[in-house]
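Comment thread on ticket #2218

A.B. wrote:
> Attaching the input chain for the structure job we discussed in standup.
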Amino acid sequence: MKGSQALQFSKRSHAVKTDCTSKQIEFDPASGRKLVAAFDAEHISSDGGLVLLHRVDKRTGLLRKFAACFRDYRDPDLLRHPVEELVRQRVFGIACGYEDLVDHAALRADPLMAAVVGKSEPAREQLASPSTLNRLELTPADAGPGSRYRKVVYDAEAIADFFVDAFLDAHEKRPAELVLDLDATDDPIHGTQEGRFFHGYYGNYCYLPLYIFAGDFLLCAKLRKSDIDASAGALDEVKRLVERIRARWPKTKVTLRADSGFARDALMSWCDENRVDYVFGLARNDRLEAMIRKELEEVRKESEKTGQAARSFWELEYRTLDSWSRARRVVAKAEHLGDKPNPRFVVTSLSVLDHQAREVYEDIYCARGDMENRIKEQQLDMFADRTSAHTMRANQLRLWFASVAYVLINLLRHYGLRGTDLERAQAGTIRLKLLKVGALVRVSVRRVVLSLSAAAPIRGVFARVAELLATRLPAPS
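C.D. wrote:
> Ran it. Output below, let me know if you need it in another format.
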């Protein structure tokens, strides 16, 4: 067969739909008519809300900056999918709910995805295949021009700083005070991944990633083995974050907040020496409980008298027997619930003159519980637990892809949803309400036109969000 004939045959073969997608599916009659369906409509996207994420990305340069953290050793004359396009495809895919690379086998033909990723001919050009995206994730740190297949290397330090810079760039005005929430969580693994260990507290084989948030903004997502203390590596991350924050906002007060797993002398001593405050949970012990024995008895009597929970707050000065280098302020909550005492303790550097005991515990420390919602968004909505690659380096990149998708949706929430019914919606709800919108896509020489359903319940909010993004974000450069 001649070359031109083979090419024509290939094109015709590519255009023929497989039987499993073109075959009609019959349903029960509706309105007295036969009801059938088939996956045979071309140029239709189920992710019409991508245009909102595209606006956020275009005007903030978020994914362009993220792509700059990679070094591409591939031959530029042979490139079909530049790194920036690969990054956009992967992050947009996660944001729209496609957690697995295999999803891109079909998604690569989506014309709207191709348009926002950056393809010049979105109606005809296909996006990267799952194998191409897989090579991006599996490239080792020492890859170079001589490597055979995997030649796109990420810079871990640059990516770590990228998240801090994205947070700083999202704020035009310097905040007077900044609270950084630290926490560790389990990331269960079910294979023989590198760094696999059994964690007794969580009761499974897992990783133990470290997260640091400032409100809704993700500043750090560090994958770690699980055979470590919860605070392992936290001091290095805090040093890096504080240095970068103070370079932009030297007068902003920084406070760390975390549970008792982070009440470690090295971290607290560094904070004491560097004008960083902290409010950490403190695990109770016999010595601490003995210091508030009288108060516990008083709240027990009050609870028995009223039939309600009773509590009071007290100031202590406390030092461990050998692990702390100095005595520190401890706020104690003497509480009786039902038929049992429930003492709780917090260690803090905050001044007693500025922050009374009840305020430290109830208003400041307890507010850290909202970080659990942010971790749930990251783990459940952005699929940060899809760490099924063999190496920790590849799994760290998967965690970062999920994190960038979270940052992108959070910027949409930050700029576009304030003042709307979705202002406090979680990422999964935002995806369901705003991103999963069916759209007919028509591509011409000059325009990409989306036809959205006139009966869509979200149409008013959708238009409002697009308008808010246009006014609150700078024009694209």
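A.B. wrote:
> Thanks. Noting for the ticket: The longest strand covers residues 328-337.
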